[in-house]
Request: fold
Amino acid sequence: MNRYTPLRWKRVSLLVDKKAVAALGAFLLLVAGVAILSLGSGDMSIPPAEVVKALFGAGEGMHELVVRSFRLPRILLALLAGMALAASGAVLQGIIRNPLASPDLMGITGGASLAVVTFLTVFSDRANALTVSIQWLPLAAFLGAFLMGTIVYALAWKGGVTPLRLVLIGIGLTHAVQALTTIMILFGPIYLATQVHIWTTGSVNGANWNQVTTLLPWALLLIAWIWISARHLNIQELGDAIAGGVGSRVQRERLFLLAVSSALAGSAVAFVGGIGFVGLMAPHIGRRIVGSSYGALVPVSALIGGFLVLGADWIGRTAFSPMEVPAGVFTSAIGAPYFIYLLLRTRN
Amino acid sequence: MSVLIKTTRQKAAGIAVGILLVILFAGCSAVYGYTEVGWKTALDALTAFDGSKEHIIVLKNRVPRALIGAAVGMSLAIAGALLQGLTRNPLASPDIFGINAGAGFAIVLSAAFFSVSSIHQFAWVAFLGAACTTVIVYLLGGVGAGGLTPVKLTLAGASMWLLFASLTQGMLALNERALEEVMFWLAGSVEGRKLEVLTSLLPYLAAGWLGALMISGPLNVLLMGEDVAASLGQRILIVKIFAGVVVVLLAGGSVAIAGPVGFVGVVIPHVARSLVGMDHRWVIPYSALLGAILLLLADIGARYIIMPNEVPVGVMTALIGTPFFVYIARRGLNRL
Reply:
């Protein structure tokens, strides 16, 4: 069976990967299913049919309030953050050409965490209120992430960058960044400590619509951007020599993609903290399903990432009720063994 | 590799100098800080205690702190030297391999959910956590194609570290009361510990120090390669297990006392090897002394960075150690 089917419309034509479309549809359904289940569970249990009704404004008043005001922002935030982290990981793995690259192992999420904690410490007054708008938080996180990404990249540069050196230096700098974050927490306002701890583990607890509407444009625009520049990523994967040979400005594209990737990781970290290993796992699962062409890989792995975080949050919320386990604990608990499995599979 | 100290006599003299330096810096640690006490007062506090504020500070705070810092620095540096020799991996150390994080997680878990509170119980919990992590990382680094390579070992260790760090933070997020108690401890600190903490763990640490010295000869043989060691009649597995137990005692004990203090175990063995070469009968005592000196200095520095507050010493060692770590990582994992 032919995997691709051409799509022509006047002067525009597109080669559509049927398998990718099928995978995309399947994961969309899966995400929708988990979202509905998650919307329905909690202190007040709502059956799935009622949830759907409430979403479209046809449910009971109470159900509508719970679903639309309390639970929906949280679900959307989890979804967006997962998508952003997964897309960021997919890009990193492409430009570094190594399956082990991910925003957390490269210290990028660490850098974003440090930036966010610094932001909260510096711009808090004595009454623990922020002195500047929370809208600036994603920018701070992005700067932290990007700075960290470039520092790691620069330190790993030795007439070129090898993936291993990149990961090792990322590990080292993650330790250092964690130390700096600790200083910030210790000298920041005391209430911050608890908040930051929950937040560095990665949790979507306490999400509100304000956060969702701030993250939404960032995440979707950047993911769309990556999707459009998929052709650059595909070329990058062939290696510097071939990429240069076919006319790609390799280093420039790489730096640019690194910036977009950092921006994605940073914007996710700004709102939900470092949800670990999503950026590693999702692109891998995606690659298994649709192969490594980025036009298909980016959207599919983004959905998988959203699914992972959504699922982790759902389990964390319901499994140990009334306690809430941060979503990051679950993603790490699945992700670390997965990482090790990857380690065992890689041949060199 | 060019070595700075060549003859045996010079090496022995170096040990003596090292011991003197440790005593000197321990003295500095007792004297300098937010409350300046002066050398004479510090000596008086030890010999003729009169109950004044300065004497109490020296005796109850500064002296325990200096002793604990020295003991923890020694233990971590020795554990790092053993691990680096054992795995022939220049980045091997209890913190990069996640052993400290494993012990820390075990302690937080037991404090938060099983209301463990005595230092003896903490110690055993820490040993258990350290032992499990060591075994897991070693097994993971060894399976798969190519056997036990430095790269796989490092990556397996790093992922275990990330896992335990995340689990620990999740645990703290669940249990806010525990957070306040362990926050400073988790950053790695030698401040505010009572002397009893050290004395009750000293037997384990001392056993570790002795064990490390005992294993240093066989470790030299093992460094020539496993084939050579086997043909010389060494029971490799026993040597490895023995060294593993020593590492667990030292790392677990240090974590129980001071929390996960990072980078001492990575940096110090390199310095020691550049001083005395590859002979572990010298590398281990040198690492011990240098580790104690580094931690004492870091702890003194930690008091001055943000006066009148203090930085946890683990933060200091991480900041000092990172450039070094980057240097080693850039050099590559294939030579010790």
